[in-house]
Amino acid sequence: MSFSSLLRATPRLAARAAPLQAARQSARRSYASAAPAPKAGGNGGLLFGLLGVGVVGGGLYLYARPDSDDARTVKDAASTKEVDYQKVYNAIAESLEDEKYDDGSYGPVLVRLAWHCSGTYDKNTGNGGSNGATMRFAPEANHGANAGLEHARNHLEKIKQKFPEITYSDLWTLAGVCAIQEAGGPYIPWRAGRKDGDVDNCTPDGRLPDGDKGADHIRNIFYRMGMDDKEIVALSGAHALGRCHADRSGFDGPWQYSPTTFSNEYYRLLYDDKWQERKWQGPPQFENKSDKSLMMLRTDMALTTDKEFRKYSQKYAKDEQAFFSDFSKAFSKLIHLGVPTTQLSEAVPLKKTEDQAPATA
Ligand code: HEM
């Protein structure tokens, strides 16, 4: 067994050995973070319905006037063929578990792909967002923040070959929904209709957050998308899933003890354990005092130190239902950012496999 596959197979060992590995690889990609200044009350936007679930997207009206010189224009036509999205969902669900990959599931990295393809949205210009699936192309695929997401894209390529009629942008967002729901998370309203763009639609680097910064940085990034403080804190709870990889972001380790289960444990740990700066040669991050096997980013810690953020993180630590409800709305909003309402279908019911009749599951 090679060193890296041994690390993957034994997460706890990975958490311990990674400083060495990180130092050796010195692989931290820089996350440019030149986000525009936040606008006062920056969660403005147009309201559109999602079968009763409010989804806010800014600047959507601009899509009514396509202009070939405008990065907002998505050039490829979406498939007109009918797609059985539940079948696609089930195929993804079936593909999630893999003992050889990370903590045994592709789910977390699929959630990160759905978030990174959507979180590029800029409400002021209307460009970016999940419409387009532009991370298929360099330069966006090579942006530091997207390091490691080729694992998710390559994994989903097999599903795309099975269901060629679904667009990549629908597939990536649906996969994020599937991964959250199958990990025990809440139902997430999802609508179909995203179109795949081309390389001209790639967004500039620096639109996604950098883990070694504080509350101001987080707000700059998320307010630009049209998100507010409650949504920022709720969305950050996705760090219940997965881990940091020294050879991707430079950070290292999981946030919680069961990184393939979606729960509010992330918030509970933020308050129930004690956190100290980890002394190592990698980028600044925190470790839990009790057994040093878990990590938090500076941005995670900001959810407890910033007064506004603290209100929500404390609430979610105590009340998982409140977290699930706010997360579902915020994640649904995230994965529809930048997609013109005129393109979108009604919400597509996507059942968890455990809730399907045995015949269809
Ligand atoms: C302040 C905001 C955020 C920062 C700074 C941040 C930063 C990071 C970093 C550094 C990683 C490790 C990547 C790697 O090394 O593989 C990561 C992983 C992850 N992030 Fe975030 N993130 C943020 C918000 C979010 C949001 C909003 C979501 C989803 C709603 C999310 C979902 C995930 C997931 C699921 C992983 C684990 C991926 C895996 O295990 O492969 N993050 N994040």
From TrEMBL:
One of its GO terms (cellular component) is mitochondrial matrix. Keywords: Heme, Iron, Metal-binding, Mitochondrion, Oxidoreductase, Peroxidase, Transit peptide. GO terms for biological process: cellular response to oxidative stress; hydrogen peroxide catabolic process; response to reactive oxygen species. Pfam families: peroxidase. It is found in: Mitochondrion intermembrane space; Mitochondrion matrix. It catalyses: 2 Fe(II)-[cytochrome c] + H2O2 + 2 H(+) = 2 Fe(III)-[cytochrome c] + 2 H2O. Its EC number is 1.11.1.-. GO terms for molecular function: cytochrome-c peroxidase activity; heme binding; metal ion binding. It comes from the Eukaryota. Residues 117-352 form the Plant heme peroxidase family profile domain. It is an enzyme of class 1 (oxidoreductase). CDD domains: ascorbate_peroxidase (cd00691). The keyword Heme applies. InterPro entries: Ccp1-like, Haem_peroxidase, Haem_peroxidase_sf, Peroxidase_I, Peroxidases_AS, Peroxidases_heam-ligand_BS. Destroys radicals which are normally produced within the cells and which are toxic to biological systems. Belongs to the peroxidase family. Cytochrome c peroxidase subfamily. This is Peroxidase. It comes from Rhodotorula graminis (strain WP1).
